[in-house]
Amino acid sequence: MKVTSIKTTTLKALLSLTKKKDKLIRRIESIERQLEEIAAHAEPGKTADDIIAEGSKPRKGIRRSGRKRRSPHGFMTSEIKRMLEAAGAQGVSVQSVVTSLDKPSSNVAVWFSNAKKAGLVDNIRRGVYRLKNAPVAVAAASIS
Fold first, then answer.
1. Which DSSP string corresponds to 90-103?
2. Mean pLDDT, residues 32-58
3. Mean pLDDT over all residues of the chain?
4. What strands lie across the sheet with 92-93, from one edge to the other?
5. Mind listing the pLDDT tens digit for each residue in 62-113?
6. Measured distance CA(117)–CA(112) in Å, rounded
């Protein structure tokens, strides 16, 4: 095979595969160094497989994700109902619930939307709700 007869696409494919091969060789060398390091510090009677298996086990008490823990089931409902009862006829805004419960606004807005459909709350104005059948404060009329 003459070098002058090799097509450009073939050369590009060979170059790409050579780069992948070099990358894999470097990775294998890195793994071999890690194995040698483990073997150098290994306790008598432990195999490399034992040490690797220990390293892969999650440690107790340490959370792996940065995600917040979930609230107990029904927490948001009970807290919102408590806030609505305390607010009475004035109602409570979605934004105030979001800030006090530290929940996403979309979750709270969906809760109020579903509660309105179920007939639990009335929409006083945009973003403000009160419990259905909450006593409406009536201004005392002066009797002359």
1. G-EEHHHHHHHHT-
2. 70
3. 81
4. 92-93, 128-131, 121-125
5. 666 666 677 778 888 889 999 999 988 899 999 999 999 888 889 999 999 9
6. 9
Q: How far apart are CA 74 and CA 111, in angstroms?
A: 11
Domains of the chain, earliest start first: 76-131 (1.10.10)
Can you tell me whether residue 124 is helix, strand or coil? Answer: strand
Gap between the Cα atoms of 100 and 110, Å rounded: 17
Report whether pLDDT(44) > 70.
Answer: no
SS3 14: helix
- Nearest-angstrom CA–CA distance, 16 and 87: 68
Helix (H) or strand (E) holding 130: strand 128-131
Q: Tell me the residue type at 48.
A: A
Report the distance separating Cα 83 and Cα 78, nearest Å. Answer: 9
